[in-house]
Design a protein that fits this description.
The complex is a heterodimer of chains A (366) and B (262). With 366 residues, chain A is mainly alpha-helical. Chain A has one domain: ABC transporter involved in vitamin B12 uptake, BtuC (Orthogonal Bundle). Chain A has helices at 3-26, 28-46, 48-51, 54-79, 87-105, 110-136, 142-161, 171-178, 188-206, 208-218, 220-226, 230-256, 267-277, 289-309, 315-341, 359-363; strands at 181-183, 186-187. In chain A, helix 4 packs across helix 13, helix 8 (171-178) packs across helix 12 and helix 10 (208-218) crosses helix 12. Chain B has a single domain, classed as Rossmann fold (3-Layer(aba) Sandwich). The chains are: A mainly alpha (366), B alpha/beta (262).
Chain lengths: 366, 262
Amino acid sequence: MTATQEAQVEEIVADDNRSVIRSITRAQATQIVLVLLGMMVLFTIINPDAFLSVFNFRSIIVNASIFIVLGVGVTFVIITAGIDLSIGSVLVFASVMSALVMESLGTEGWAIAAVGAVVAVLAGALWGFINGFLVAKANVPAFIVTLGTMGMALGISQVITGGIDLYNVPEVLVDTVGFGDIVWQIPTLAVIALVIVVLGGILLHKTKFGLYTYALGSNMEACRRIGIRVDKQLIWVYIVSGVCAGIGGYLSLALYQQTTIAGNSLTNLAVIAGVVIGGTSLFGGVGTIFGTVIGLLIPVTLRQGFVISGVQAFWQEVVVGIFLIGAVYIDGVRRARARRSSGKKPKPMAIGGLTIGSTRKEGNSE
Amino acid sequence: MDERDDGSEVGMPLLEARGIVRTYGQVVALDGCDFDVEPGEVTALIGDNGAGKSTLIKIMSGAEEMEDGQISFMGEDVTMSSPSVARDLGIETVFQDLALCPHLDPVRNLYLGREVRRRAPLGWLGFMDNKKMRENSGEAFAELGATVRALSVPVGDMSGGQKQSVAVARAASWANKIIFLDEPTAALGVVQTHNVLELIKRVRDKGIGVVFISHSMPEVLGVADRVQVLRRGRRVATYQSADTSLEELVGAMTGALDEERL
């Protein structure tokens, strides 16, 4: 290399370090944090004693934990431009299977609780595999596949139990995971969710698996031509989502001390809404685990805040709906802006405008 | 891939395609097409629209299947069943649509599918050596003329020329036998076109066979050592570019020459 080239390399690498900061400020997740903080400030002003209480924060965290675990898996799926509607039903299926196995083993003690955990994870992984296999190999759209398995997983759970919830959950599980605290007022449930979040974040943002997840959502055809095993990657992504739903099912058993067969019909939509509010693009290629966590904390914080402020909690659904539509609208605006700005120097203001549908539309000039 | 300096006979083509047939429904894209690539030589593949140039490149790089015909690589018959097969043979391709991931930055695109892993045990878990990849990419882009200014901006935010540079740099970094370029200069400005053409020559000088599709005859005559002309799915002529002319090439492409001969 010549001296000029070396200088250029240095310049390029230096520019790179600057843009790390830029990419943080650009991320939709950063802005959504501000929304969450703003909400908290507002509720604090309305009713400081109740909102700032340890009890309040504890319930927000507990209520959000299971959704966040599900959200981690769904984030992977949506980044590939897919969707997983089956998570609520898979959660139910996993909790039913886990409860059944634990019941048959005698219901008490840590050993049995551990077996139950393994069963729940495997049950989730099974549905994830079915979803992924059908999406990748049979080429059925993810929306239809997971709509189908959503009905199947719930239906089978109802057939097995006759539609009646199971209540035999090991007491150790309920006492430690469901209601217990690791230390002080830090709920065990939340710590487990945090561990899943951290593992999911590392997997998505630091490893090859995560990189291929983004690459798939960005340009699947390019991945295929480059030689990435697209089908295998897709199947694993849906397995990740299934496993998260399975873990969610187990945590749900611990928290509610029963299966919740009838209680999860809208879980999928609530989780997907949170993930999208958190900045993950339904068009694929964009999204963060951090954004998902914030996006899922917002509905729960709203509900809690409304209750505390004396507003009917039903308003929460209304506000979340507005946020959801707003988030997708903003994503669309950014994508459009990015499309216009390409061709010029990349603008720092092209916030999250990482999303361009496909290079095929862009670079092709036959 | 260690058998590069295999001392294969002079004049033996690196890659030879014979009688390639490919149809799309009623349309015959390739109708018994021949093609050959010599090491250390720039070959231009020209022909009118619909002559089958892109299809031929896709077949030789494993991105499309052929219905009939044979491909041999360094004297041995090979089945280009997937792009990975071609890649493993040291064949890289810049497709017309560039095959880049718009959300990923140039470094990610350059290394996609070939990530440098961290040392064990972190490497086993799929952790990547980002620093090393970034430094190497910086060099690869600088070598191309540094039209790629920032390494962590998503490729989708870049100009058409920058995208093309990323795709070309990727192919040039990995190819060690053959590089196919499907209209590599189509979206480029004057300076960038010059850079790509210079790069083509540099790659050739390393002993790699370069094949490029172009509609620009001055470009073809300026860079190519040899020109192969496709018409209606067949190779109708091969010229040494030193011995040919614009008129002759256009004549072969349009079929005017044949008719004169008849």
